[in-house]
Design goal:
A hairpin with a 2-residue loop joins strand 1 and strand 2. The protein is built from three helices and two strands, in the order H-H-H-E-E. Helices cover 36% and strands 4% of the residues. By secondary structure, it is mainly alpha-helical. The longest helix has 19 residues.
Length: 95
């Protein structure tokens, strides 16, 4: 895959990056080099390679999957300017 100058300008526009006409050829080369490397990575045979969560072997810490209120609702509501029955009260902003 090869990137042309129009694509470089489009990517720069989407990324909201100001790019001068003088910078476009250099960025085109950079993007083409990146894409060539990605294509090279696609050629690597990874069949039989287990997915990793870390570079060091470790067990994932698991917790019980249950819903709680965090057990600190009173502390959280203490920061509210106004509350009622366990909920924040906010001024109406939509008519």
């Amino acid at each position: 895959m090869s990137v042309d100058q129009a694509t470089v300008r489009r990517v720069a526009h989407l990324a909201r990056i100001a790019v001068t006409d003088a910078e476009v050829p250099h960025l085109q080369e950079e993007l083409n080099a990146i894409l060539a490397f990605v294509e090279q990575l696609a050629e690597v045979d990874v069949s039989g390679v287990e997915p990793m969560t870390s570079v060091t072997p470790m067990a994932m810490k698991m917790r019980e999957d249950r819903v709680t209120d965090g057990f600190i609702a009173d502390k959280v509501l203490a920061n509210a300017p106004s509350s009622d029955d366990g909920y924040y009260l906010v001024p109406k902003v939509v008519e």
